[in-house]
Automatic annotation (TrEMBL):
It comes from the Bacteria. Residues 596-611 have a biased composition (Basic and acidic residues). Keywords: Membrane, Transmembrane, Transmembrane helix. This is Transglutaminase-like superfamily protein. It comes from Kibdelosporangium aridum.
Length: 794
């Protein structure tokens, strides 16, 4: 037998990551024993680490992912009536799409739960900043408000959703929770599509997201056939596709068999959808009324404390009639509007009237009063000057408000309030007012007994009050006529601010008593007496406190309201008309309407500037710098530098991750030998990230030994198996088999998992963003060129 002479490694440049050569022992064993026993080969194969193959997407998987994304988008349609606009769909649909994408990539690449969670957190932060809180960006750059809103929403985003009136204006803090639900649902649904074979597993996420939205949107949830029908159709289609495909990840499938199963099951899906919608329409489990509302158990963010009863301040304001309150400009159908309401008192305990309203934060759009039929719209432009208290001027049933910084709205009473000082506010209010025609034929309207209750035993209602109410209502039959009879009777009482204050049972009974000297009062007693008398006859009634519009202080469509215009009256809820005002005080006897002598103008009055005239405006100082003019200051340049550094800090890791992803895809292309070498290059990149020195002159075996010394046997077991495979691919003339290519990439994936287990999570995350593998090849090529130049030039 001819002796085999040992061969030296071939000279020449090597590729980055270490070129590999045949060793003498490998060559000799290959030539002396070309046909090794099968048992030895099988035993040797058993030492290869077992890895899970990367999933390959097929048509069934693609179709399921698309349908699951649609299902998550449909689940977000439940919020259509929660928000006043469609802007929230930008955040919810983006979150759902990104969630499905993250879940699919995690399943395909077999990411662990920790890696999936980390990538999911980073992805949702980007979605939250650029989609949810898009309104806080400054030319596409996050601001301090963005970060502050993000932190607030993480802690109390869901609470804010339960603390606003509906419909709410779309805003980042309100869109955060629906977007998070859609994002998490997308990740879970996509993962279940690709990682499980259970038929109904993927549809659990969109159905659960739909169910979570229902209690949040209870007062204004989107019911009906369309959202439920679409969600049911998508869910059943996903189930049908999964049932018709034994392996949802299969790339080569029997198309004829799959289409046959699909077409056979499609009529079943149609019948199931029709049956479900029919059952929902004709045999509902619940009618949807009186749904449980989480807002009833969540403390409202606006705390409106009435330290002083509004009725008790009436006499004080009338005694000092010249204090400025507000100005109001009316536009629209303003016929018959002669008063502005600030507060409505709905509860009477026998001693005083009070309000039990619960105020929730309101956006620009307010919930409409559905009891109004063919109302007319009126617009108020209010400028608050010296108005005291927390209630805001209004009329009718408000439907929108603009310009008020922070407003609370009670959907039960239609009252606006704030927990701030409203002085200086200038807001626009659009409201609906009941029509005037047919009012004499109207009937009472009440959804509860809240506005008809009166204490009868504790304290005991005086018999004279009940008797007077029965007497006034007995002479007429129509409900509206009964109310007019009470109003006419109350207007017959003398008006005097010198009477004793109060509006209790005792104060009212004095009006109806035998002592003529006590049958006198002012708006406080008259409004309370009308409301009590109306309630004894079953009318839903409340006491309203506000201001009359004095025609003597009218300029065009604008009224100037002063403290002397303060007034109280009663309001009755009539079907189709809303809260209708009744005037128990004789208008001719009210101080604001009493005739006054014409004042003689003085020179001082003539020279007094108008409130909105240019003479009352402060003069402009010409020495003050104008905004937007002049050169940039040092602070401006410092801000630009900080923004640039921040953008660099954010974009650099993203660019590194994108480049690594591009290189990985590139290395998986080409010939089979090139793909094996690409797997080795990927493996050496991972070693460089973990601090293993890899040079162009090192062989595969040397790289494997260095990695074992640096990291340990547990973190580099697959590298020892990958080294001879890449050596054979480099030097063997024949192309390797496809299964060898798959094995090489499986070993590369196994190496990444081994490194994650051997190193801490912090080091693993740092390795993802390590830029050293990107310039390692360039550095070695530069060193090689310098060495070659030195050798050739001497």
């Amino acid at each position: 037998m001819t002796a085999i002479r040992p061969q030296s490694p071939p000279a020449g440049p090597r590729s980055a990551g270490g070129d590999v050569t045949h060793t003498v022992s490998v060559t000799q064993s290959a030539l002396l024993n070309p046909d090794p026993p099968a048992k030895k080969a099988k035993r040797a194969r058993q030492h290869i680490p077992q890895t899970q193959p990367r999933l390959k997407m097929g048509l069934p998987a693609y179709s399921q992912l698309v349908l699951i994304g649609v299902a998550m988008g449909v689940s977000s349609l439940v919020y259509l009536r929660f928000f006043s606009g469609l802007g929230f769909l930008i955040s919810t649909l983006t979150a759902a799409a990104v969630g499905v994408l993250i879940g699919a990539v995690a399943a395909i690449r077999r990411w662990s739960l920790l890696v999936t969670a980390g990538v999911g957190v980073l992805a949702f932060l980007l979605v939250a900043i650029f989609a949810v809180f898009r309104g806080t960006l400054n030319r596409g750059i996050p601001t301090g408000t963005t970060l502050q809103s993000l932190g607030t929403s993480v802690i109390s985003g869901w609470v804010k959703m339960l603390s606003v009136n509906l419909p709410a204006d779309p805003s980042g803090e309100l869109e955060f929770t629906p977007a998070l639900i859609c994002f998490l649902g997308g990740i879970v649904a996509a993962s279940l599509v690709l990682r499980t074979k259970y038929l109904l597993a993927p549809v659990l996420a969109p159905v659960l997201a739909f169910m979570i939205a229902l209690p949040i949107t209870a007062p204004r949830s989107v019911g009906g056939m369309i959202p439920v029908g679409v969600l049911l159709a998508v869910v059943l289609l996903v189930t049908l596709i999964r049932a018709g495909t034994s392996d949802p990840m299969a790339r080569t499938i029997n198309a004829k068999a799959v289409w046959g199963r699909f077409l056979f099951g499609l009529p079943v899906v149609v019948v199931a959808i029709a049956a479900g919608l029919a059952g929902m329409q004709f045999v509902p489990l619940a009618d949807g009324d009186n749904r449980f509302d989480l807002r009833d158990v969540v403390e409202p963010p606006l705390n409106i404390d009435d330290l002083i009863n509004p009725l008790a301040t009436l006499k004080t304001q009338l005694r000092k009639p010249d204090a400025d309150m507000f100005t109001v400009k009316l536009s629209g159908d303003t016929e018959g509007i002669d008063r502005i309401r600030t507060v409505a008192l709905d509860t009477f305990d026998g001693a005083m009237w009070s309000s039990q309203d619960q105020f929730l934060l309101a956006g620009s759009t307010l919930p409409q009063d559905e009891s109004l039929v063919n109302p007319r719209r009126v617009t108020l432009n209010v400028q608050v000057n010296g108005l005291q208290g927390q209630y805001l001027p209004q009329i009718g049933a408000p439907v929108s408000v603009k310009g008020a910084p922070r407003v609370g709205y009670s959907k039960d009473s239609g009252i606006l309030a704030t927990d701030q000082l409203p002085n200086g506010w200038n807001y626009e209010l659009v409201t609906e007012v009941g029509r005037k025609t047919g009012l004499d034929k109207s009937v009472p309207y009440s959804v509860s007994n809240r506005y008809t209750q009166l204490p009868r035993d504790d304290p005991r209602m005086p018999d004279v009050i009940l008797a007077k109410g029965t007497e006034l209502a007995a002479n007429v039959s129509e409900p509206y006529a009964k109310l007019m009879a009470i109003q006419k009777y109350m207007q017959g009482f003398p008006y005097s601010l010198d009477t004793r204050p109060g509006h209790s049972y005792d104060a009212i009974s004095r009006l109806f008593g035998p002592n003529i000297n006590e049958q006198v009062g002012y708006a406080e007693q008259f409004a309370s007496a009308f409301a009590v008398l109306a309630r004894t006859q079953g009318f839903p009634t409340r006491v309203a406190v506000g201001y009359l519009l004095n025609k003597d202080r009218r300029k065009g469509d604008t009224y100037e309201v002063k403290s002397g215009d303060a007034h109280a009256w009663a309001e009755v809820n009539l079907a189709g008309y809303g809260w209708v005002a009744f005037e128990p005080t004789d208008p001719k006897r009210h101080p604001a309407n009493a005739p006054k002598p014409k004042d003689t103008e003085t020179p001082a009055d003539e020279n007094r500037p108008e409130e909105n005239s240019t003479a009352s405006q402060p003069a402009e100082d010409p020495n003050l710098p104008r905004l937007g003019e002049g050169a940039l200051t040092v602070l401006d340049w410092a801000l630009f530098v900080l923004i640039g550094l921040g953008a660099l800090a954010v974009l650099t890791p993203i660019a590194i991750a994108i480049e690594k992803f591009r290189r990985r895809r590139q290395r998986r292309s080409g010939s089979r030998a090139a793909r094996i070498i690409g797997a080795w290059q990927q493996a050496t990149d991972r070693l460089i990230e973990h601090g293993v020195p890899v040079t162009a002159s090192a062989t595969a075996q040397e790289v494997s030994e260095q990695a074992r010394e640096k990291i340990g046997e547990s973190g580099t077991g697959s590298l020892a198996v990958l080294a001879p495979i890449v050596t054979k691919a480099v030097f063997e003339p024949a192309e390797p088999d496809e299964n060898i290519v798959e094995e090489a990439w499986q070993l590369e994936s196994q190496l990444r998992r081994e490194l994650r287990k051997a190193r801490s999570p912090l080091l693993t995350v740092r390795a993802w963003l390590d830029p050293r593998p990107l310039y390692a090849r360039w550095r070695d090529e530069r060193r090689r060129r310098r060495a070659m130049d030195k050798l050739t030039r001497g």
